[in-house]
Amino acid sequence: MKRLETAVIAGASGYIGQAVSRHLTDQGVIVRTIGRAGSDASWSDASSLRDVLEGSDLVVNLAGRSVSCRYGKKNADAILTSRIGTTAALGRALSEVRIPPSLWINASTGTIYRDSRDRAMDEHRGEIGSGFSVEVARAWEHEMETSGAPVRTIALRMAIVLGAGGGALNPFINLARLGLGGRMGPGDQVFSWVHVDDVARAVIHLYHHDEISGPVNVAAPEHVSNDAMMASVRRSMGRRRGLPTPSWLLEAGSRIIRTEAELVLKSRWVQPQVLLDSTFEFAHPTLDGALVQIAQHTRRGLLPVALG
User: H-helix or E-strand containing 82?
Assistant: First the structure.
């Protein structure tokens, strides 16, 4: 098995980026970063990008503005440019280094697939959806695919990432603790998810599997409905009941907290077929098990939530 000695992480200050960096460091990997002040390289300095990438084994780009906001023109432009711009900069730098890494993993999203309540969307038979989020994902992946960088590339189509201390779970925990943790909208929309630890583990797994390239779904093999997901959250937080939230109230409430109701109303049924076919073993394959682990590391009271 080839050794993974040096990795470059873009977006290392974000929740997923911190988890991936920490996991790699724990495995003895030297981690260099691209991003804000204090990073090893800056997006605005092409020379520093080339220097940090030179001779590294792996680069993982997780940079991008949060989608938890209203999709007005200003936010929409920031969401798109923060993804396309960083990907384009990496592509240019990777094409210019003397010894490039063997693998470039770029973040993408499982929301690229259509609203699906009839069957799972895998990498081979998944049907691309429509709308702003899908167009962002398509442009994001296209930028990497057409970069011309002389490296193996993987688009990491992540489901909703769960974990203690941040990620997408805090709003659901708060609702459960307030007694509002019932189904959202019709409740039958599929909730595909993945524990943040498995995202980090998947990155290393993909590095060691040279036969894998292109889009890779990163989602737990178990799928649940929104109704079942909220029931699981309530159980993990010791709450027996939760009031449901109808779709019209979600639409109204999303305007108040400046986010989009689509984030919970769209049915995301993402099947990680490439990972399963390559014998990847999930550390957190079931939602109940993942939430028990998360609850053990989650403080009491309401949790901070970033609002757009």
Answer: helix 73-96
Provide the CA 210 distance to its chain's centre, in angstroms.
Answer: 22
CATH of segment(s) 6-296? 3.40.50.720
| pTM, entire model | 0.95
User: What is the number of alpha carbons within 13 Å of residue 15 lying toward its C-beta?
Assistant: 18
* 219 vs 161: CA distance, rounded Å: 8
Could you report the per-residue pLDDT of 266-296, keeping only the tens digit for each? 999 999 999 999 999 999 999 999 999 999 9
* Residue 302: Cβ-neighbour burial (10 angstroms; 0-12, 13-18, 19+): exposed
CA dist., res. 4 & res. 97, Å (int): 19
d(CA 173, CA 164): 11
Specify the 3-state DSSP secondary structure of 231. helix
- DSSP letter at 12 equals T
**245 and 263 Cβ atoms separated by less than 8 Å:** no
**What DSSP assignment string belongs to 259-305?**
--THHHHS-B-B--HHHHHTT---S--SHHHHHHHHHHT--SSPPP-
Q: Which residues lie below 8 Å from residue 50, measured CB to CB, with a gap of 6+?
A: 93, 96, 97
In this structure, the chain runs to a length of 308
Residue ranges of the domains in the chain? 6-296
